[in-house]
Structures are given as C-alpha cells and as structure tokens.
Batch of 2 targets.
Target 1
Amino acid sequence: MDPHLTYTPPTGRDLGSLPLLLVELQRDRLSVGDRRLIDVANIVVLVAFAVDYLVELILTNDRRQYIRAEWINAIIVASAALAVAPTLSAVGGVRVLRALPVLRGVLAVVRLLAASGMAARDGRRLVRRRALSFAVGTASLTWLSAAAAFTLAEDVGDGRRVESFLDALWWSAATITTVGYGDITPVTSTGRAVGVVAMVVGISTFAIVTARVAAFLVADDG
C-alpha cells in the first residue's frame, strides 16, 4: 500500500506550526501562560508529525524508499522532540541546553525550513483540489502569523504594554475579521504593516468562503 495515495497531505499542519516558532524566539520575555501554550503547541506538533510518519512507515511496502523520500518529516519529528524534551523530562542537563537562546534559534530554524519545504511540496495539490479548504487554511495561518509578528514587533510580554501572546491572538482575530475593537493596537510601523496585511488577507479569504457557501446554498435550492 502506498501511503501517499491514501493520506491527505498535511499542509495545514505543516504551515500552522510555523508562526509559533517565531514566538518561541521571544520565550524569555513571555508570561508563564504563554510559555505553557508554546509547550502544548510543541507537543501537538510532535504527536501529529510522529503519528503521521509512523503510520505511513508501517503501511508502506518499501520502508527504505519511504525513509529516503520523507526525510523532511523525520527532521521535523526529531527537532520537535528536542523542543519538547524539557517539558516531558526533568533531566537537568536537557533543560540547560534547551535554555540556551542559540539552541532555541537553531531548533526553530530547522523546523521552519523543514516544514516550509513540506508545505511547498504539498501545497500545489491542495490549491488545485480544495479551494475552500485553502482559503480557510490561509486565514488561519494569517491569524497565527499576524499574532506572532505582532509579538515580535510590539512590546508584548509579562508586565509590558501588551500582556501576553494570547492578547496578540485576540488582536489578530479582531484585525483579520476587520472588526477592529481597538482595545489592543500596534504602535510600531512594523506592527501596523502586519495589521494591513492581515486585513487584506482576511477580506480576500473570507470573500472566497462566503462565495462558496452562497454557491452551495443556491445549488441546493436548485
């Protein structure tokens, strides 16, 4: 059995993990709640990639060929495991290594490159076959990416102007849906540019979703 013929390419999972890697680089200044959120996200990414990799490895007839073809997935699993190790283990030496900013940066870059490569490989198939899913996925990715960029560009952190990454997620959701409550606003040029991109993408993707829903309702009535 060829797993590539029976499994949907996990592009949304690949891309969805990327914005949190950027937030990981600012881990030291974030609140305890934000750090726990990052740890949970790392565990979810590890489990998702590991299960997908192991299931396909078991189902394939040529395991050697699969390992050679899916080396990107293996790299993501390994790097995610290193990122999660301090959360799952009380080994002091591992915690010391994980606390080094350089190591955090290396792990983030490795996962960023690997997940980007996998998403680029699988994305073309997704766009051709599932326009609605692509629009929803793009909106979700923009929501996470805008929140991550806001966290990097603005004064976000424990005791700062914006308290936490969760507040950044709230701002991103209000911006991408063009609601704009105004309780949290960017003050830097970069933050405002991120807001503009989020609004443009939000208007475009939600228009696609609305059009597809309208087409479904009209077809159903006919």
Note: The first helix runs from residue 3 to 6.
Target 2
Amino acid sequence: MSRIGKKPISLPAGVRVSLEPKMVAVAGPLGQLTKPVPVGIGVQVEDGTVLVTRDSDSNAAKALHGLARSIIANMVRGVTEGFKETVLLEGVGYRAQVQGNKVQLSVGYSKPVILQTPAGVRVEAETTGRLVVSGIDKETVGQFVANLKAVRPMSRYGYKDGRGKGIRLARETVRFKQRKVGV
C-alpha cells in the first residue's frame, strides 16, 4: 500500500471538493482548480476529508495512487494558501521588468527576452533583480519558474567576485566549481 496514497487529506474551512466523472474540482477562498483523475484511482469525500483509493495492486496503480493524492493535496493547499516562488537574477546588468502580463528580462543577450505569463500566475518585481511568482496552481507556477530559469541557467563557475551569474531560485544553493587557475 502506498504510504502517501493512503493518508487522508483534511479539508480546511471554506474548501469544497466536488467529484465529477474522472475529474476532481476543488474550490476555496483563492479560486477553483479542476484536474483529471487517473484511470484505476478512486476519490471519496467524507466527513471533511478526502480519501484516494486504487482498484488494483499493479505497479502502475501504486505509482498513480500516491501521485493522485499529492495532486489533490496541492490543489487544496493552492486554493487556501497559494504557491509562491522567489526568482533571483544574478549578474552585472541583469534585470527584470513586469509590464502587464509580460516579463521582460535583460540577461546579457543582445535583445531583451520577453515571456508571457500564463493565466492564473501573478509576477511582481520586488527589485530589478528579484521576481516573485505566485498562483494557486503549483504546476503552472513551477513550469513558469522553470521557463524563467531556462532563459539564462545559473553558471556553475564563479566570476570576479566569486559568484556565478544567471537566474536561480532564492531557496536554491548553487555549488560552484573551481575556476581554472593560471599555469
């Protein structure tokens, strides 16, 4: 039995879970999310908790059991608290500007890179080198942050003052490699 899959999900006050054929909808104070339920996985709502069950003991069903439970738990957390990631731009002259639903990055290329923010994701520029990405869907927030990081991945080699340059998360620690030393 999956350890994660068999844990019940407690529903905070103000959160409603509705079950449709092959779909789960979670509504809360911050919004509403809908996700499909994998084949062979059952979802039950009883007494303020959500239970996820599986039909068989195959390896695929075991894997999907824990996954489905985690997705539903993230949906419940998203509509109550939301998700937030802080992105840092490190490098001389690296900066970001938010213009409506677009993010303009100046990260050492000849032209600025412009990214469209997906629906349901909010981006705020705290400073020119610090962005806060927030939203209720963990998957969309995470994918947009990954797209931001892919514009200029963090360099593993330090430069003059000993730090690398690129785009990284504030919670990440980057292990730098030794620079080549003169012969």
Note: Residues 11 and 168 are 33 Å apart (CA to CA).
